[in-house]
Each structure stands twice: as structure tokens, then as C-alpha cells.
Amino acid sequence: MSVWGASILAVVAAAGLARLWQHREARRADARPAPAPDPWPEYPFDAPPPEVAYGDAPEVGDELEALIRVQVEQAQGVAYGQPEHREHLLRWAAVRDRIALQAELDEQDREPAARSAAQAAEELQAHDHIWEDGQAGQHGPRSPEWDLAAGGRAYVRQEYAAWRAATRRTTP
């Protein structure tokens, strides 16, 4: 047999073995027991779920428009104090969280949206950790409640719900 013939035979044999291995693994996967449920809660401790935290919130588009308006004003030199800055961080984190929670997001957009929401939540927590003012929810930014996987975003929901309740804002 020539070198080329042996090479072709080796490739065909390897492909056949790979196919057999895939079928074997598929049968093994079917025979495996289902994984145990995740022991961690979806929402840490008593932080409100999204439907409660954002129940009376303005539409995402209206909130984005208001946030952009604030950024334009800041660029034009309008001075904002510490409370306004925190409110801006809170509203921005809440908008990102709401976008990440939207069911109509494609699978490829879901992960970047979740990362963006988590990053905004970390910024709010860092701000509240440093300044220690403005925090309105039951658990502060240093609480261990927020150490779980979705803890930062749950902190945003807690703070947003408390802020909405305190201000009773109906417009962005």
C-alpha cells in the first residue's frame, strides 16, 4: 500500500472512531442523572425581584433619554452634587439591569448585557461603599448578601425600589 493510501485509510478510521466515540458519549449523557438543583437562590436574601423593583419604573427608553439629558447638562458645565451623582449611577445601573433582563434579547446579546449590568452594579456599590451616604435599602453595600453571583444586581434592585418609594417619581 502506498503512503497516500495508508494516510487516507488512517483518516477514515479516525473519523469512524470519532463518530463511535460521540455516539457512546451521547448514550452515557442520557444515562446520567439530572444535575442537582442550584443551591443558591436566584435573588439573594430579601432583595426585591425585578418585577417588584421595576414595577412602577418609567419605560427603558424614557429613562435612557433622561440619563442622556443629565450627561449633556454635565458636559455643558451644570454642576451636580454627590446626591445627584449617586442618583445617576443608580438609574444607570437599573436601566442596564432591566435591559439585561429583557426576554427578547438574542443569546449572543444576553451575556454582554449581563456583564454591563454587573459592571454598573459594581460601580454603584463602590460609590456607596466609599461615600456611605444615600444608601436607602435594608442592606448596605458591604453586606455579605451581595457576595452571591447575582448579588450586585440585586443590590441595584434593592436601592432602586427604595429610591422609587422615597421619591415617588412618575417621570424620568
Can you put this structure into words, describing what you see?
With 172 residues, the chain is an all-alpha fold. It has a domain at 50-167. It contains 6 helices and no strands. The protein has helices at residues 3-31, 50-53, 60-75, 82-101, 107-131, 151-167. Residues 6-15 and 37-41 have low confidence and may be disordered.
Secondary-structure topology with pairs:
Blueprint: H1 3-31, H2 50-53, H3 60-75, H4 82-101, H5 107-131, H6 151-167
- Uncertain runs: 6-15, 37-41
Element-level helix/strand string: HHHHHH
Largest sheet: none
Rg over C-alpha atoms, rounded to the nearest angstrom: 25 Å
Please tag this protein with its features.
globular, 65% helix, mainly alpha
Task: Please outline what is shown here.
With 172 residues, this protein is mainly α. Helix content is 65%, strand content 0%.
